[in-house]
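Most newcomers find our protein records easier to grasp once they have seen one. To make this concrete, we reproduce a full record directly below:

===
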Amino acid sequence: MSDKKLDLILEELQSIKEEQQVIRQEFNDKFKTIERKIDGVHEQVAENAENITAILEDTKHIKNVQDRQEKTIDLLSRRSIDQEAELKRIK
């Protein structure tokens, strides 16, 4: 092969290497961006899990309060009915 052909081949190889380097850098940049996004998603998932736990605790507390209030209302209703019956008996 002639020197010109060898030089052309070497130039083409160099060009391919440069393109490969650019592609590799672009890939690395995109990969880092994806990693950052995944880290953000992980953080959000952890925060959401904490919020869900807090909401569940609040819901349980509200349910307990409602149960106590229902029992109190039932007791007061029974007392009112008993008192009404007693008043009718007295009249």
Q: What stands out?
A: The chain is about 95% helix and 0% strand. Residues 66 and 72 are 10 Å apart (CA to CA). The first helix runs from residue 3 to 90.
